[in-house]
Amino acid sequence: MDWIVAPDRDGRGLPDVVPSLLGALGVDGCTDTIGFPECRSAAVLLVDGMGWELLREHAADAPYLASLLGAPPLTAGFPTTTATSITSLGTGRCAGEHGVVGYTFAEPGGGLLHPLSWSTHGTAEDAAGHRRSLLRRWPPERAQPEPTAMDRAAAAGIDVRIAVPADFHDTGLTRAALRGARFRGTHALGDLAAELLTALHADGPALCYGYHGHLDMLGHQHGPGSLPWRLQLAQVDRLVAAVAERLPASTVLAVVADHGMVGIDREQVLDADREPALREGVRLLGGEVRARHVYAEPGAREDVLAAWRETIGDRGAVLTGDQSIDEGWFGPVVTDDVRPRIGDVLAVMRESGVIRSAVEPGESSLRGQHGSLTAAEQLVPVLIAGGRG
């Protein structure tokens, strides 16, 4: 399967970004495996959906960002989805340790967790807008109990902040991925830039994480590379340039992404609800349209595996959860607590294929998608400004 880009194991993945910045800040026990300049303060801005291949293809729309494209790309990890990637970035761990193993995945109560809302997902009731919060029954601190990289930075005496949309305050994903940082709610590009710069002008050492989500939103709605997407990329370019030109001496701005994106070919859509072979023996269908966790009924794994392989054929890759772990898709370690969250069978799609489901009417209809292991989804940029003086 030469189209599969596996997550990096040599220190150039999203989980390595914050520990590497802490190394550049001189924190004991942290090693910079990415190559950031030594600095007294740092900010990392995650631009949702800005894949390395997309940025290179549309460099003319983002001349400042393109001017920083000197370093090799990072790998996002698996699956290439926002909840997983943000948790990888915030904890400095791969999904096999932090446990946010997909857009949706099995939770201890027997259903599916949607970590972006920290609620149930995957039933007709959920599709009608009646998701049930799992914040009390399965708190984020129990689902992801490991200290975050933000915790580690704060313990080292660094002023740690996150500048993210105001409605992310105290959400399940924020608590799982980014706890340990002071929350600074933002509303638009202007206050996002201002919060990053305010942190970098702090008297002592500081680390600030910022998030911009509109490029991903327009990629989903209109397709990556569409005119709305390109115009939004140009706005991101101006945002980064505005912050970079105001950087104080000896500070670093690192711009990364959580995943790339592919446009969907309507001729390459499989319907999990209308294909009997994709329903037989299946207890739960998790993940997302390009990377499915398939949870089998007891004793049905091998039959489910065979049926999914035959149905998908060369449109993707189908393997057992154990095989995906052996391949290192979820990182070098998969803990005993995390293993039940991974599907009995995994299906990842190549090129522009998807596996839709009626319980996800909004997600399944989007023009741009991600989650799989193609280079377009897996490779993300690391763009570095500042660090001199």
Automatic annotation (TrEMBL):
Which N-terminal residues, if any, form the signal peptide? none
InterPro entries in UniProt: Alkaline_phosphatase_core_sf, Phosphodiest/P_Trfase
Record-given protein name: Nucleotide pyrophosphatase/phosphodiesterase family protein
Species of origin reads Saccharopolyspora cebuensis
Q: What is the organism lineage in this UniProt record?
A: Bacteria, Bacillati, Actinomycetota, Actinomycetes, Pseudonocardiales
